[in-house]
Amino acid sequence: MKTLHAYRSFPLAVRLLFVNQFGVDIGFYLLIPFLVTYLGHDLGLSAALVGLILGVRNLSQQGLFVLGGSAADRLGPRGVIIFGCMLRTVGFALFAVGSTLPLLLAASALSGLAGALFYPAVRTFLAQEAGHRRAEAFALLNVFATAGSLLGLTLGGVLLLVDFRLCALVASGVFAVLCVAQMFALPARRPPRRSTTVRKDWREVLGNRTFIAFAVAMAGMTSLENQVYLLLPEGARAATGREEAAGAVLVIGALANMVWQLRVTRALARRGGGPEWITRGIVLTAFGFVPPLLVCAAGTPDDWGAAVRNACPVIAGALLVYFGIMIVHPLAMELVPRFGPARLTGTYFGIFYVFSGLAAAGGNALVGWTLDLGRQTGLTVLPWLCCLGLGLISATAVAWLHRTRALPAPDAARVPPQPSGHDGATRRRTPGSRPDGSRRCPSPCPLARGRTRATPYVPRHCTTARPVLRCGQRCCGRCCRRPRHRGASWWRSMPWRLGLRPGCGYCRAPASARRRT
What we know:
By secondary structure, the protein is an all-alpha fold. It has helices at 2-8, 12-31, 35-42, 47-62, 65-75, 77-97, 101-130, 134-160, 164-185, 198-206, 209-217, 219-226, 231-240, 244-270, 275-287, 304-335, 345-377, 382-403, 490-497.
C-alpha cells in the first residue's frame, strides 16, 4: 500500500515513466534471456555467430549511451524516449520474422541502440520532474524494473513452450503500446536553445574529474550488481545440485526488492541520505558474497534436507546483495545530475552508463575467469573473494571522495526554508547564520588557523566575488580553496592535487571564473 500511495503522489508524467520502465523490463526479459537458446538450438547457428549477434547488441547499447544522453539534452527526453521505444519495437519484430544473419544483426543493433536512447532519456526526464523527491523516484523506478523483470521471465518461460517467435511478437507489442501511451501522456517541453556544440558538452563532462573519479569508483559496485545474474545463481546451483535453486534466488531477491526498496530509501532520507550511505551500501553488498563461502566447497548434497541447508547461506548472501543495491542505486542516481549543470543532465547520465557498461563487461570477464580457475584448481572460493575485494575497493574509493568533500553537496532545494515572523523582525537562527539571514564562514574555519566564532563575515581566505546560491545566501568559498596552512594534511589536500575540486561544491561555479584574494 505504501508503494501504491507513493506512486500516486507523483505527477502523471512521472507515473508514466514508472509504467514505461515496467513495460521495458517485461519486454526485455520476455526475449533476451531466451535468445541464446533460439539462436543456437532452433536456428542452429555456431557459437561464434551467436556471440557476434549478442556482442553487436551489447556494443550498440553500452557504447552509444552518451549519444542518447546528448540527444535528451538537445532534443528533449520525451522525443528520445518515444523514438527509442519505436526502434525496439522494430528490432524485436525482426527477431520474430527474420532467420538470416543480416536480419538478426539488424535486429540486434536496433535493440541495442533503442536501449542506448531511452535509458539515459528516462533518467533525465525523471531527474527533471521529480524535484527534491529524486531519490524516492529512482527507488520506485527500481521497484517497477524489478517487478517487470520477474514478470517478463515468468511470461517468457511460458511462451517459450509454444514458440520463441511468439515471445518476440509479444515483446514487440509491449513496446508498441508504450510508444502510443507516451505520445499522448508525456508532456512536451521545448529544450533551451544551445550555443555550444555536442563536442564541447562531452569535453566539459569528461573534464569534470570529480565525476570521472566517482564513475570509476562505482565500477566495482556495478560489477557486483551483475553478479546477481551470474555468480549467485551459479553458486546456488553448485551448492544444491538443482537447477531450481538458481531461479529461487532470483525470485526471493526480486520479492525483497519490491517489498523493501521504498522503505529503505525513505529510512535513509530520514537519516540525511548522502554519499556516506553509498559507501555503507557497497560494503553491505560486498559482504553479501561472504556467506556463500561456507558452502561453495561442500559438494553436491544427496537429499533435499542437505540441499536446503546449503541453499540458506547463498540466499542470505543474495539478500545482503539486494539490500546493498537498494541502498546504493537511488542515491547514486540522485547524485549523478548534481555533478554538473541541469542542461547537461542527460550527457552525465549517458557517460555514467558508458562507464557502468564497461565495468560490467570487465567485471563479468574477471569473475568468469576466477570461476573457471577455481574449478580447475579446486579453489572454489576465488570468485567470491574476487567480488569481496572489488566491493571493498569500490567502497574505499567512494569513501575517500566523500571524506575529502570532492562529491557535490545536497541540492539547496532540499534545505527547508526558514520561517519568519509577521513583521519580518523575528527569524529562526541556524548555526553559521547572521540575524539578517546571510551566512558567515563556519567556525572554527577548517581552512584558516586561529579563527573563532568572532570571525568577520568576509574572511581573508574567501573569494572576493562570492556567488549567490539558489537559496539566496552567499558561498563563503571554503570549498574552492586548497588548504595551505600547517594543519592541512595530505589526505585533505589530495583532491586539489589531483584536480578533483575544479569548482564550488555548493554552487557548482567554475573556479576559473573567480578572483582570489
